[in-house]
Amino acid sequence: MSSDLSQFNDAFFEEASEHMTSIEDGLLQLEQRPSDLELLATIFRSAHSIKGVAGMLGFTGVAQFTHKMETLLDQLRNGKLAVTPPVADLLLRCTDVLKALIGEAKGGEKPDAAQVGHLEQQLADCAAGKVLTANQAPSAPAPVVQVSATTGPTALDAPPHPMQFTIGWTPPGNIFQLGLDPMQVIKDLRNLGAVSHLKVDAGKLPALDTMDPEQCYLAWSLVLDTIKPQEVVEAVFEFVKDDSILSVLDTTPDPPVAAPSAAVAAPSPSHVRRTADDEGDVKPLGAILVETGAVSQEELNNALAQQKKVGEILVEQHVITPQQVAQALETQKHAEATAQAKKSDTATIRVDTAKIDRLINLVGELVITQSMLTDLGKNFSPVKVPLLLEHMAQLERNTREIQERVMGIRMLQIGTAFQRFPRLVRDLAQKSGKKLQLVTGGEETELDKGVIESIGDPLTHLIRNSADHGLEPPSERTAAGKHEIGTIRLNAYHEGGSICITVEDDGRGLNRDRILAKALKQGVIQEGEKLSDDQIWQLIFQPGFSTAEKVTDVSGRGVGMDVVKRNIEALGGTVGIKTTTGKGTIFTLKLPLTLAIIDGMTVRVGNELYIIPLVSIVESIQPKTDTVRTIADQAELINVRGAYHPILRLHQAFNIDPEHTDLLESILVIVETEGERVAVMVDELVGQQQVVIKSLEKNFRKVPGVAGATILGDGTVGFILDIRGMLDLTRRSELKVA
Amino acid sequence: MGQTVLVVDDSPTMRQMVAFTLTSAGFQVVEAGDGKDALAKLSTSLQPALVVTDLNMPVMDGLTLIKELRKLPQLKFVPILMLTTESSTDKKAEGRSAGATGWIVKPFNPDQFMKVVKKVLPE
Fold first, then answer.
1. pTM value?
2. Taking all residues of chain A, what is their mean pLDDT, rounded to a whole number?
């Protein structure tokens, strides 16, 4: 093959996933508006596009399956079949299988063949069965012989012996308007062999004054000597034959005496080469033998089954040892696996060209600033310091803007992550027998691609949780004076430097007593322990904690809320809960906009510098004597306008020498997460800056209370404090006290 | 100096593949995402030697586009190939009566594609 299309695989996968979303989304809407033809057309087009490109790239599984879906969709589109709930349901199940098939093409796991076959059968039944019951005559198969580019010349069937055809052709009068040139057709015939007795019949040519120069009045007759079979000759007229008067007669003088079977049984290399040219691809010998009818497919398979593997042959000949074969096979396997992994690792992103243009402009500005600085450096004198400062400020502006824009490239609208949930809620409603609706908002909120990819699972679990535990069955809802349809709201919005995603339901709310009883039973808390409401709600994130009486199909999948919390925290985010008995529950996921850079406050303790994420900081205070309380000689609390917060001595937590050990001389930074506050004791506030986060876990190991590290302006490493970790550190000391 | 081909398809991947095949063969390619887009591109000084169009497209489908193209003086005699799939055999007749020159059946490989192009485009 002259060119390789596999370079378009990634583009296809991205396009296909967009189409999948559009199909699924369309089908869900179609359930509500079954007669919306526009919607059907869109769904059909998406399936059609997937099929076309998948076929070109050789993903036959995908192409075949989409083809069957498309057949049914076509029936729906033409009004031959109505969109009934079972039909919509079948198509939705098909989208799942199609997703799996695309995943397989990407190098993932093969979907269950039985299921694929079963659905294909159902699709065919649905498409065929309904048409027949609607009493429509089954459309006769198109009489057109499909001599197409794909089938190609069937030259293989015929041995290459000389043939002669006598051809008469009267092209349609409008052949020029079809963009065709009769001469081109004659030339094509010349390419097949020798053309002789070429005659032009100009009998129909009208007088000059009545002639339309754009019409074709001529007809041709000729004799063609060729070694190509009749189909190939007729294929030359493929595009015009329906409108032409055409006769292709086999006038081969004497049928060849030489038995052509000899040539077939032992095809010469030149024969193989020629067929290879025709097909654009070299066929194995076996395939050619089967096609020419020399052997049957079964005979060929039997012969192939007897064929020994190259490893076996070499071992028998004592050229290599079985171990060497095993080793080589292992290497092959490994190579395949790495190739696969490489394949699936490449992720692409589509970026608005305007974003890229702006970046290119900015880089241009950066280069100018840099050259101004170089210039300044060459002839520098102390008088030029103000100029230097000005250029430096310019450089800082450029850098900051480029950084923001580069981040912006990775930003995607969160709507892409929300798209899968209407389907989920629909399925959950079906399974649980509850009436549910999903309302989404803030889809246009932008978020880092990496974060978007990682929040899908936690959100899925929270929605399952709301549907299963939060929302009541219709009867219970009407009894409580609520609308029988339970609502799950999914919303996203920016808040400061973070993004908040809320999953809200109008269900029964968390049951305080039940959670406490369960926690007590599991030994998570002790009898008589005083907990705030917020602390109680957080208990549901304990591993293995479930208040459900029975494990249901909906949420009992072995994934608990603890996994949700862990996943969100791994992203540097937090999970908050607000709940009102009888009114509902709101889960709030608070996530950083990007995983790479944060705004931080640099603080100093002794000689060490730490960074506290700015979003977590409530305020900084200098404590006064009468605001500090000590409990049991250990836990220290600070009273800030009537509220007491635990104090964490950072120097104690990290075991370093501070400048001040006296609280009154130090500074307390009050930080907050999930509604809890803690006062972190430091020596000095150094300043506010953006820091690039480097993973400590990846480069060293996980350290409690530390979220990551960064390289500071002077080249030293600063640790970024993990506020959740800070809280846990204080809680541990509190528990000791209690 | 290669001739220009106008490629109309709503699937960017398909468009890229067709464009890749044509540019590899020395053609220049102008891409359009649907019929309306194609007509807009033709309202400039673009004079394609060949048009390759998909049939199923949003905004303006391939058949409508072919009819519109044949109304344009500069496209009266230009070959127009439609990309079809096996399921749309009936579309071939419809396409031809709209003024299409021929068709290319999807899926195709680059060699097969170029064979059909050579069939309608005199060298």
1. 0.53
2. 78
